[in-house]
Amino acid sequence: MGIWKSRPVMQDPLVFLSRWQIMETDDECRHFIGYNVETGTGRASTAIVSFDPQTHRGVTQSGRIYELVAGSGIDGNANVLWDAICAQSGTSSRDVSSEYDQASLVSHKPVAPLVAILSSREMTGTLSASIPASRRMFEADDPAHLAELLFSAGVRQGYLRFADSGGVENQTSFVNLLRVVERRLNQLERDCFHDGDHSSIPDS
C-alpha cells in the first residue's frame, strides 16, 4: 500500500469518513482515521482541535473538516497507515471511538437548526431528505432546490447527514450532490446574515 501526503486543505477542505476510528496518542492528541468515502482510500488526520457531536464534524490542526459517516468501524488500509505514522513518530495510541460513536443517525436529539438526513436514488441521481425532528420529507432533482427547501424548513449548513446505508461508500456522485446542497445552504445562510446585519431595506 502506498502512502502519500493529502492534497492541500484549500483543494480538499471537507472529508467524509466511514469505517472511522478516533485514536488518542501518548501525548493525548486525538486523530481521525478511516475510509475516505470520496477517494476510496484509507485516511489519517492531523490532531483534532474541535469536534461538534451534533454535526458529527471535527476540525483538525490542518484546518480540514472531517465528517464521520454512520457508526465507527475498522478500515484495514487506514489502520496500516496509522501504524506507519505511529512507528515513524515513535508513539503508541489507543482507540477512543466509543466516546464519539452514535448508535443511529436518526437518534440525534432535535437541535436548532434541524438535522436533515439525505439519501439518493442511484439510477436517477435524485436527492431526497428527511427531517426526523419534524417528520418532514423533501425530494428534488436539483440539489440547489433541495437546499432551498431544507433551508426554509430550518436546516442549516453542517447539519446534513448521509442515510445510514452500506452502499454509501461507492456513491461518489452522491457526495458531489451533497456538496452542492452544502454550498447552497452556505450561500443562503450568508445572504440571510447579510440582510439582517447590514441592510435596513430589502434589495430590489
Layout: helices, strands, pairs:
Blueprint: E1 14-25, E2 30-36, E3 41-52, E4 57-60, E5 65-68, H1 76-89, E6 93-95, E7 114-121, E8 126-131, E9 136-140, H2 143-152, E10 155-162, H3 172-198
Parallel strand pairs: 1-5, 7-10
Antiparallel strand pairs: 1-2, 1-6, 2-3, 3-4, 4-5, 7-8, 8-9
SS element count, helices: 3
Number of strands: 10
Unreliable residue runs: 103-111, 165-170, 193-204
- Indicate the overall shape: elongated
Instruction: Give the count of structural domains.
Output: 2
Descriptive overview:
- This protein is of the alpha+beta class and 204 residues long.
- The chain folds into two domains: 14-99, no CATH class; 105-198.
- The protein contains three helices and ten strands, in the order E-E-E-E-E-H-E-E-E-E-H-E-H.
- It has helices at residues 76-89, 143-152, 172-198, and strands at 14-25, 30-36, 41-52, 57-60, 65-68, 93-95, 114-121, 126-131, 136-140, 155-162.
- Strands 1-2-3-4-5 form a five-stranded mixed barrel.
- Helix 2 (143-152) packs across helix 3 (172-198).
- The N and C termini lie far apart (57 Å).
Summarize the structure.
The chain is of the alpha+beta class and 204 residues long.
Question: Which descriptors would you attach to this protein?
Answer:
204 residues, 2 domains, five-stranded mixed β-barrel, four-stranded mixed β-sheet, disordered C terminus
